[in-house]
Amino acid sequence: MTDVLAAFEAAKGFMPLDEGLALHAAAKEATAGPATPGLPLLEVGTYCGRSTILLADAARSAGTVVVTVDHHRGSEEQQPGWEYHDTSLVDPATGVMDTLPEFRRTLHAAGLEEHVVAVVGRSPQVARLWRQPLAMVFVDGGHTDEHANADYEGWAPLIAEGGLLVVHDVFPDPADGGQAPYRIYRRALDSGAFAEESATGSLRVLRRGPGSLAL
Ligand code: SAH
Ligand code: MG
């Protein structure tokens, strides 16, 4: 675990350690707990793999995998001129963002390549192809309402009963950040299909109850 945490702290990205530990604990519980043992984990929003390595460590312990989905072109706020832009992540050959090489370096450094399936694509397109029930879905992709709602609608129905929905960047107060992740978190609770398990910083962990999910 020390190696994994060192790799997490060395990776590019913005997730603080306390939220990372909460994410790791949720992934451990989802993959090893009685409700969804051995089912895969799914992440929307790979970026440079900072959160992926925590999910991969949990997957390794449980003999399963984490599937991580990203088009690797960055979100709105990561584009040139925006607050979260990192010029070192621009591909000089194309002049556009490409976080895939840095993600692969992160995973290699952490020694976790075997436990991760990386899908390069848009979250709704990948979700439409997906059938397998999931132990946990971690939503940390695009933060517009359009993207956040599409992530929720595409992936939340695939969470197995007893599995977890984890949403990052949930800010109930608009002064702290954008509201789209908060709105899908509310949407999940208001559906009646999910109940809150824990909150750490902007990370919310919800558990899927029995019955179908009305979108
Ligand atoms: N989970 C990462 C951070 C993810 S940042 C960490 O904790 O380090 C958000 C990522 O979502 C960006 O890399 C961006 O390219 C990706 N993204 C945004 N909208 C997307 C979409 N519709 N489909 C796939 N990836 C998307
Ligand atoms: Mg985030």
UniProtKB/TrEMBL annotation:
Any one biological process term the GO annotation gives: DIM/DIP cell wall layer assembly
One MF term in the entry's GO annotations: methyltransferase activity
SUPFAM superfamilies for the chain: S-adenosyl-L-methionine-dependent methyltransferases (SSF53335)
Origin species: Actinacidiphila rubida
PANTHER family assigned to the protein according to its UniProt record, in alphabetical order: RHAMNOSYL O-METHYLTRANSFERASE
Keyword list, A-Z: Methyltransferase, Transferase
Protein's recorded name: Methyltransferase domain-containing protein
GO cellular component: a single term: plasma membrane
Taxonomic superkingdom: Bacteria
Pfam families per the UniProt record, alphabetical: Methyltransf_24 (PF13578)
